[in-house]
Hints:
single chain, 200 residues, alpha+beta, 8-stranded mixed sheet
Amino acid sequence: MTPAGQARYEANKPTWGPSAVGLAESNDPLITCDPLGFPRSILYETRGFEFVHTPAKTVQLLQYQRVWREIWTDGRPLPAATGGTPPDPRWYGYSIGRWDDDATFVVETTGTDERTWVDYFGRPHSGAAYIEERYRRVDPGTLEVTVTVTDPETYTRPYVAMQQKFVRAEKQELEEQLCVPSEAIEYFRTIAEPAARDPR
Length: 200
């Protein structure tokens, strides 16, 4: 990480990984039901997703929080690539996609909101992050996904945040998995906060 990236990472207090804290001490945006955002939505516990293709865009349906991403496939460039100003920050960024060959769908994303984390370990990203996803169909039932993060403000070099194969579940429906603010508040009040006060 760059010094700025390291400082942001140390300010994050995840509930997972080597720097994990108790839920009551965490500042993970997820625990207050903020959107997972991108790229965390792809990396979060490998939840289910589907693609719906239209002539101008591909829509990615994400199981957790029942949200979607628009991936423009009509040939437009990323806004920052045109020499203009980057788009206003968005929870899920601004994405364009193209087919690299008959079996690899490449998605490029910029304009992500830096309040989101890369993953549940609290790795940060800046608003200048560029994320590339490569979805390659290995066979009719297997999809290989590679996610690479390039963010010179936060990391000294690009890194692969995920490289994994997914096996399609026949006739699987996307479950309704929602973070409900009222339930999160009740959980904090009755479980997390009392647990934080009692170290046993």
